[in-house]
Automatic annotation (TrEMBL), chain A:
This is Myb-like domain-containing protein. Residues 155-208 form the Myb-like domain. Residues 439-457 have a biased composition (Low complexity). The keyword DNA damage does not apply.
UniProtKB/TrEMBL annotation, chain B:
Belongs to the actin family. InterPro entries: Actin (IPR004000), ATPase_NBD (IPR043129). The lineage of its organism: Eukaryota, Sar, Stramenopiles, Ochrophyta, Bolidophyceae. It catalyses: ATP + H2O = ADP + phosphate + H(+). This is Actin-related protein 4. SUPFAM superfamilies: Actin-like ATPase domain. It holds the Pfam family Actin. Coiled coil: none annotated.
Amino acid sequence: MSDARAILGVGVGAAPVAVDPVQAAMKSPGGAQNADKKLKPPRGMSREVFNLLQTQQNEIAAGLSSTPLNDPSLQSTTLLPTMVPSSRPKGGKVGSMSKTDKVSKWVWAPFSSTARNDGADFHHWVKAGVEYPDYPFARFNVHLDSVEYTEEEYNTYLANSEWTRSDTDLLMGLCRRLDLRWAIIHDRYTATPRRTIEQLQHRYYSVASRLTHVRLTLASAGPIDPSNPISTLGTGSSSQSFNLSYEGERRRQLEVAWKRSKEEEQEENDLRKELKLVEVQLRKLKKAGKGEEPATSMTSDPHEAANSLFHRPLPTAGLPYLQSARLENPVGVNGLSKTLIKKMELVLRELEIEERPLPTKTVVDIYDHLRKSIVTLLTLQKIASKKENLLLLKKAEITQKGDSTPFEQNPVIMNPQRRTGGVQGQGMKRKSDAGMSVQQQAQHAQMQQAAAKKLKK
Amino acid sequence: MFCGDETGAYVMETGWTNSRFGWGGAADPCLQIPTLLTSSNTIGLSALHSSSNTGGATPIFNNPNNTSEITNWDAWETLLSSSMSQTVCQNRPILSTDPGFSPPGQKETQTEIMFEKFDTPAYFISHTAALSAFSLGRHTAMVVDCGGGGNVATPVIDGMVLKRSLRRSVRGGDFLDMQIKEVIEKKTGKPLAVRPERQTTGKYKTPSKAYLSSLTPSQKTYRSFCLHETLTDFKKSHGVSLQFAKVDMREVSGLIPDDSVYELPDGTPVNVNEHPDLYVVPEAMFMEGPLTSSKTDAPALIDVEGNDQDQPQTDPSLLDVPLHRLAHEALSSADVDCRKELLMNLVLCGRGSCFSGVDTRLSKELTAMTPSTFRVKVSSGKGEERSNASWIGGSILTSLGSFQQLWLSKAEYDEYGSTLAVQRFP
């Protein structure tokens, strides 16, 4: 855009061009500062283009954009005029010409560029009468600072067992020429021990940082010598070290990901979905009731869980403490689920205990103990029935697969020697200890009789 | 042209089949000729077919294993000087191209000839892949070039070619020509007819076997050039649409339009319906498995994985793999971090890619081969731009203002000599 600006005659050192309606519009008094005044775009130029030109102008004036391309001090060399004519006849669009317009003269002029160091002459077509102190595109010749070392510096600080001097020199030369484009440097590095790209990077950055470190310590150690300032340290000489192992690992992982086939990807996605489902189920189980253990966990004990819920809180000094507070049924995430509480209340009613016992310490202690036992009983019953169901399922699976081993039809409950895991076993024993409701006892007795009959058969 | 500078450089590109010459800054080359010289050392299609061309043709590139190797330097010089005199090029900087797998020393010889014989003020050699990427406005791209001599897949990063990651295959235009020729000759029972421009009246004389075996090498070259013309014409009219998926040969006959009868120069009709193979000739570019055998000169499949670990790399791997696999091999040998950007900018160029459906098919096959985190995007020019992509890129390059500092000038050549000077070229 800046060359358009140059043609239009704005900015420092603009090329003198024939009177141009756009130029006239832009050259209002105090050009760049006219941000507040509403300048109208000339006819034929769109509003958006004109706004862009304005914005750029203002930016440069304010010194906001300071890249080499927008550096005000470099604005003295404008870009070449474009091939597109920019004059405008009366009443027409920008860029069109009428018969009476003056044709601008172009010459085949020689030019030289400061970007070239041989001073060779080239020719190009330019508008007659325009003078350029330097080739406008020379300022694009930007390179990274190079890292250079002397012979002594290399021998003292940079010598390495894996890297010979010539290899290191080759690498430094490539980095300088190619401006640290590592993919290409790796491609062009032709020394015999074939190195990976991270090895090249590691060598370069370690050399650069070591040099910096050494030079700075030397410079700070002695007196400041104005005749020998620290030359530019070169790009890549920051204090952060290059992590070779991490880079190697990262590249290996990316390679693995690249080589993975579509089937493997599909498999991984399916496994992830399954994992999500299982996690959701786990969470549901945990929420469902404190004291009830999920099928996989063997560590928690229903007793302990119940204990923690009905634990007597210690009276704290200064706060009123009422026994009646302990009568509340703990509900919520950490407490019992509503179904469990209802079941507990059912059992309490069966045992013919009054709804609200008198809240003295001993009474409430006993009440707590009772509720604890009920909750434990209910939880264990639930676990037991679940295990039973699981067992039946597995049996069905096995019989489906053709296993002819006959199975006992006894339910798990009645068989404490069965290998179902420590806590379960304990739980079963405790279950038989704990009192069962009358109905449940009758059920189990019936089942036992049925099993006995089958065995006889 | 906001960043442009009209320096009037001369852009020349000599390919395996065709050469293109023209001026930097122009939209297309002003001179497009086959890369052949007539017996009287003139160039051009009309010269080749004219009655004064009795001896046949001289090729410049004659090594099918390395289609960029200039085997006849005198012919190359003559080609250049004739083209420069035809286009009235005097004392201009010259840009020429190189595919990236030319034999070592070739660039030096080219530079020497340029400065000593032609006395150019400046010279530059750029890679065809980089130029094709520039023609589509990209500096980083995976360039897949389907040319006459073969297909080449080259990663280009920041305008520079990764030479070690270059992969090429023999299944180019000439390979497809051979397939078509075999099918037709088997069917008609006689050698494929070519159109000698001289013969306009009288009955077409089928050349006898004795005649064919008695041809001199240059006459053979001329004859194969005429064959190439016939077959290219056939390909343009009937070598048709690649389906998006692998073609089931049983379904092909349903796809061929009823009126697809091609008439050979001697009047023999070739009914594509009877030979579904002809309809899906470009499918050969995408078929798996080694296809070349003793019929062509190219070697059979060479295993790629890890073959350049220990051996010094003198020749990039020459493979006999389908187009998508070629691109995939090239990508797999490039730097891991660049692959995503390369896949997003896949450039398809060359006349062999002008069959309809090549870009869709390539995109589809590559998407199936790469992980789903990578997005594949194939870009290509339209029509003639696709076949001239590298020349157009050269034209763009020479007209850039910031390129003018990169030329190798005569002064620099005199100072450094050709070996060091060639290092200036990317």
